[in-house]
Specification:
This protein is an all-alpha fold and about 350 residues long. The chain has one domain. Helix 6 runs antiparallel to helix 7. It is about 85% helix and about 0% strand. It contains 16 helices and no strands.
Length: about 350
């Protein structure tokens, strides 16, 4: 499988953006249309009036909390790398992580971030690609348990929420279905043979449809080799995360801390515009917002997440203009700032890699 591995290694974020520029542009156009629609629904003038009341200290706290989340994320990744290799300095890993956040935030389904981390590690620090890619995959394993527990909590909390019975039942069922799905993913991640058989079976059934849709000449044997490669890397990542119990426990605790800080940050965004959100609706809506963000449709779920938040917070008695104002403050810290910083980091590393590959003058 060396040919497949080399192909994956060379598919860095810059090549990915070039090859998928049409899909990226279209997804951002869809996101812009959704944002325009939700803004028109809430009323642009009303949103601006709410934003004018923003508390600058709470706005600053919003950015501080996001910075803490990224610092904890870097620490968690460093622990995993130290298990299998000598991790670079914390500052270097922090810069690489912000570059990967840029990759995630501009690609539908957050497809560019994890490979970008491995690519930069290999090119800048000499870390083997398979180690870097497996470490970034394992990094995500730590998020599963907090996600499942918070989702179960949200499902029980919504039962006590004073809304229509059918809405409570529907949201609870959706949450539990997603919890079951992620539990299956975790189990599959620990069982390479099962995962490989399952993914290959699904891919084989979808392959004829993909051929008609893309109208490109493809060989299923090539697709099969790539699937086996990615499944191997995915299950390797899970194995790494579960190998050291101490790192596993600390990693999960750090993940709980990240989730708690993120939820507090959303609460602070509402406080900044003068609204105190009730705890139960906040936990439920935050969880649903995370679920929406997992959909591989639009970069950062731009527009889609805002539309869902407006609808759900309306049930909690919070007007659309307030929700949109709070969402803008949320996006400033959680999407726009990390993406801009990550863009500088990504192109900084890109410049270094290009200069290192230039032939020396005779």
């Amino acid at each position: 499988m060396p040919a497949v591995e080399n192909e994956v290694q060379e598919q860095d974020i810059y090549a990915f953006i070039k090859d998928h520029k049409k899909e990226i542009i279209i997804s951002f156009i869809v996101a812009a249309a959704l944002i325009f629609f939700v803004t028109a629904l809430a009323g642009l003038d009303e949103i601006i009036k709410v934003l004018e009341t923003t508390n600058p200290w709470l706005l600053a706290l919003n950015f501080v909390l996001e910075a803490l989340i990224i610092l904890i994320w870097t620490l968690r990744w460093k622990m995993i790398l130290d298990l299998v290799d000598d991790a670079p300095r914390f500052r270097s890993l922090l810069l690489m992580l912000t570059a990967s956040i840029f990759g995630n935030n501009i690609t539908p389904g957050a497809a560019g971030g994890e490979p970008l981390r491995a690519y930069i590690l290999r090119e800048i620090k000499g870390t083997p690609f398979e180690i870097g890619f497996a470490s970034s995959t394992a990094d995500r394993v730590f998020e599963f348990l907090p996600f499942v527990l918070i989702s179960i909590l949200a499902a029980f909390l919504i039962l006590s929420w004073n809304i229509a019975l059918w809405i409570r039942v529907a949201v609870t069922i959706i949450i539990f279905l997603i919890v079951i799905f992620f539990s299956v993913v975790v189990y599959a991640g620990a069982n390479q043979h099962l995962t490989q058989r399952l993914v290959l079976s699904i891919a084989k059934k979808l392959f004829p449809f993909a051929l008609r849709l893309t109208r490109r000449e493809m060989n299923f044997l090539e697709i099969r080799e790539k699937i086996i490669f990615y499944v191997h890397r995915f299950t390797t990542g899970f194995g790494m995360a579960l190998k050291d119990r101490q790192v596993l426990v600390v990693g999960i605790l750090l993940s709980f801390g990240m989730w708690a800080l993120d939820m507090v940050r959303l609460y602070v965004c509402f406080l900044a515009v003068g609204v105190q959100v009730p705890l139960i609706p906040l936990v439920v809506i935050y969880t649903v917002g995370i679920l929406i963000a997992l959909l591989p449709l639009i970069p950062g779920s731009l527009g889609l997440r805002e539309a869902i938040l407006v609808g759900l917070f309306a049930v909690a008695g919070i007007s659309a203009d307030v929700v949109m104002a709070a969402s803008i403050l949320d996006r400033l810290a959680s999407y726009i700032a990390p993406t801009l910083i990550g863009a500088f980091a990504a192109f900084y590393y890109g410049k270094i890699m290009v200069s290192e590959k230039k032939p020396e003058p005779a």
